[in-house]
Each structure stands twice: as structure tokens, then as C-alpha cells.
Design brief:
Blueprint: H1 17-20, E1 27-28, H2 40-52, H3 62-76, E2 85-88, H4 91-102, E3 108-113, H5 117-120, E4 129-137, E5 143-145, H6 147-153, E6 158-164, H7 176-189, E7 192-196, H8 217-220, E8 223-227, E9 241-244, H9 248-256, H10 267-279, H11 281-305, E10 319-323, H12 334-342, E11 344-345, E12 347-348, E13 359-363, H13 368-383
Parallel strand pairs: 1-11, 3-4, 3-6, 6-7, 7-8
Antiparallel strand pairs: 2-9, 4-5, 8-9, 10-13, 12-13
Helix pairs in contact: 2-10, 3-10, 4-9, 11-13
């Protein structure tokens, strides 16, 4: 099928968090919410369920389990039993449940900075000590793992490595070799792994995602893997995700950690999740091709039209991590300056840790006309300084 990702939809006045929180003249490009409608099979399945008229408590059906486990096998070569799946209402509740299950106040949790704010700040919800390892930029701008900092951050209090792969915000897709080395360190030091893999489907340039738990049974036994259709198919508002936990004892600990605070996936979430994972591979292939072209357009535009800004092409996700430090903007507040002078809203790099100072995160998961408009606004504002 042909898919029209160039079409611009007016999302103002639609109760959109992304579009409803900014002034009418601001173009919002911060939050990981694409400006494409969900795939048609998902919309059709939701309409059929709405017409059914009953919206009671949902159930993870055999269709859901088969759609999800078949997809893991097809895309990643990972055999997972149906009973290993724990449906949950989101990846953020998932890694917080995991931390609650595996740690006690005062324990350490290992995080790689810069980091997605809910990961960066997760330790504070559980009385944990965040132990920082770092991703460092090479001469090309590509981020690499600082292995020395990773090992040095671990001590006798460390219980969990909270991994983000593909990485948000820097857009790295960690290789199987990198993941194997990370897993080896965790196993040697007795750490559990909680792996946020919410962007796993959004592979650009033919990059391949490797679930860290798929590297071997000994890694799988100590890993909680979190996936969701929310970013891939633009379904975040339906609050549906999956924790993959083959270790039965660990799975029981995870379930117990709900503590009455985390509810079930809603019935429409199940419908959307099952349909997306079963019926939308063609749409996803077209989407990733479009996102790759958007990323390439953005990278070329930054290089040619935005002196003082640099970006390394994202390997996965639809998020660009723009280094604006060389612009020497007032207070090094690129996010605030662009909002005021270009009327474009980005994610503030400072929210991703000290390593994000002078950076902004930009969502290029949008029709090309919106991407062009946002970049032209930035170019005009910088030219008029």
C-alpha cells in the first residue's frame, strides 16, 4: 500500500497534550508523539470495538499473546512463552514496578546519562541512589559507551541497571556486541536489568534492534524487558504496554510490586495493541522509511543552514539531539531562546541531566511540511540575531 505521511492534520483543539499546551503560534516538536494518525487497521478495530458497546475490564486474549510472541520471534529471533508476558498500562509504570520489586531504599540503580527524564529521576520515587555512567561523544558526534564509568559506578549497593535501548535522547541503537558486554558486567556484579525498549521498532537505515534479554538464558533470567506500541504506532493515549519476564520467580515479584497502584490495560488498549502487532508491519516499514528520509533532511539542513548547531544522525527513534552550545545563547538556554524567537517548542536538554546543557531534543516524527517549517523558523531566528 501507499501511505500518505506528508499530509498535515490540524491537531489543535483535539485535547492533544502536545498541541494544547502551547500558544497558537508555536510549533510543538518536543514530546515523543508523532503527527501521523494510527494505522488504518488499528482505527478500524477500535471502531468495531466501540460499536460493540461494552467497555468493561479487558483480558489478554490468546490472539494478543500469539500476536506479540510471534512478532518477537519474527523480528528478533526471540522465543518467548505466552506466560512470560505481563500486560501493563505503560513502560514508565513498568520500570518503576521493576525498581519497587528489586530494590530497597538506599540501594543503587545504574543509569546512563544523558537520560530520558523519567529514567533519570526514577530513583527518587523509591529512595534509591542514582549511580551515573555516561555516554560520551566521539569526534564524529556519535555517542559511545564510557565503559570505565559504567564499571566504576557499580558498587556493593547497586541492584539494578536501568537500560534504555534504543537510547533516548541520543538515538543510539546499541549493537549486540555492546549489549553483550553490558550484560556480562551486570551478570558478573549480580545486577538485575530493566530494559526500556519502547523505541525498538523505530529502526532507521536498516539498523537492527537486539533485545538484551535475547542474548542468552542467563541474561533472560535476570531481565525485565519493556515494550509498547505507543511510540511505534502513535497509541500512547491508550496506555498499553508489555513486560516480558521469562523468569517465573521474577515475574511474581514484579506482579506483587503493583501494590494496588498499577491497574490493568484497558479494553481498547488490548484491541489496538493486538491489531498493531499482528496487522501493521507494512505500515511500519513505510513509516521507518519516511522517518529515515526526515532524519536525513534534518541532518543536511542543520549542516548547511544552521551554523553553530550540530547533530549526529539518529540510528533509531524519531528524536534528534541537537547540540546548540556553540551558539552561545543567553544563559545557554537554547530551548527558551528558540521558543521566544522562533516560536518552536523543543525538549530542554537540561531535563536529561547535566550532559544535556545547551542541547535540545527535537521530534522529527511529523509530516515533512511541518519539519521544514520548524527548521526554517530556526534558521530565520538565528539569521536575525
Amino acid at each position: 500500500m501507499e501511505y500518505d505521511f506528508d499530509r498535515v492534520y490540524d491537531r489543535r483543539g483535539t485535547d492533544s497534550s502536545k498541541w494544547g499546551r502551547v500558544d497558537p503560534d508555536v510549533l510543538p516538536m518536543p514530546v515523543a508523539d508523532m503527527d501521523f494518525p494510527a494505522p488504518e487497521p488499528v482505527r478500524r478495530a477500535l471502531l468495531e470495538r466501540v460499536e460493540h458497546g461494552f467497555y468493561g475490564y479487558g483480558l489478554a486474549t490468546e490472539d494478543f499473546h500469539e500476536a506479540f510472541t510471534s512478532r518477537l520471534k519474527r523480528r528478533y529471533g526471540w522465543d518467548v512463552a505466552h506466560e512470560s508476558l505481563v500486560p501493563i498500562p505503560g513502560v514508565i509504570p513498568g520500570f518503576n514496578m521493576g525498581l519497587r520489586a528489586l530494590t530497597s531504599p538506599g540501594d543503587g540503580v545504574l543509569v546512563q546519562l544523558p537520560a530520558y527524564p523519567p529514567i533519570l529521576n526514577a530513583n527518587g520515587h523509591h529512595g534509591l541512589v542514582r549511580q551515573d555512567a555516561f555516554l560520551v561523544r566521539g569526534d564524529s558526534g556519535r555517542y559511545e559507551i564510557d565503559w570505565a564509568s559504567l564499571e566504576a559506578a557499580i558498587d556493593e549497593t547497586t541492584r539494578v541497571f536501568l537500560l534504555c535501548n534504543p537510547h533516548n535522547p541520543v538515538g543510539r541503537v546499541f549493537s549486540a556486541e555492546e549489549l553483550r558486554r553490558m550484560a556480562g558486567i551486570c551478570l558478573a556484579r549480580g545486577l538485575w536489568i530493566i530494559s526500556d525498549e519502547i523505541h525498538c521498532d523505530l529502526m532507521l537505515d536498516g539498523n537492527t534492534h537486539t533485545p538484551i534479554a535475547s542474548l542468552g538464558p542467563e541474561v533472560e533470567e535476570r531481565t525485565i524487558t519493556l515494550m509498547a506500541p505507543s511510540k511505534t504506532f502513535n497509541l500512547a493515549g491508550l496506555k498499553a504496554a508489555v513486560a516480558i519476564i521469562p523468569n517465573a520467580e521474577l515475574r511474581a515479584q514484579f506482579e506483587a510490586a503493583k501494590g494496588g497502584l498499577v491497574g490493568a490495560v484497558n479494553i481498547l488498549g488490548y484491541v489496538a495493541m493486538t491489531t498493531a502487532y499482528r496487522d501493521c508491519d507494512d505500515w511500519l516499514a513505510a513509516l521507518t522509511k519516511y522517518l529515515t528520509a526526515n532524519r536525513d533532511y534534518l541532518t543536511a539542513f542543520v549542516r548547511e543552514r544552521l551554523p553553530g548547531i550540530t547533530v549526529y544522525p539518529a540510528e533509531g527513534t524519531y528524536l534528534a539531539w541537537l547540540d546548540c552550545n556553540a551558539l552561545e545563547l543567553p544563559g545557554n538556554d537554547a530551548c527558551g531562546w528558540f521558543l521566544e524567537n522562533a516560536r518552536v517548542a523543543f525538549g530542554d536538554g537540561k531535563n536529561f541531566g547535566p550532559q544535556g546543557e545547551g542541547f535540545v531534543r527535537m521530534n522529527f516524527g511529523c509530516p515533512r511540511p511541518l519539519l521544514e517549517e520548524g527548521l526554517e523558523r530556526i534558521a530565520s531566528a538565528l539569521a536575525g540575531r
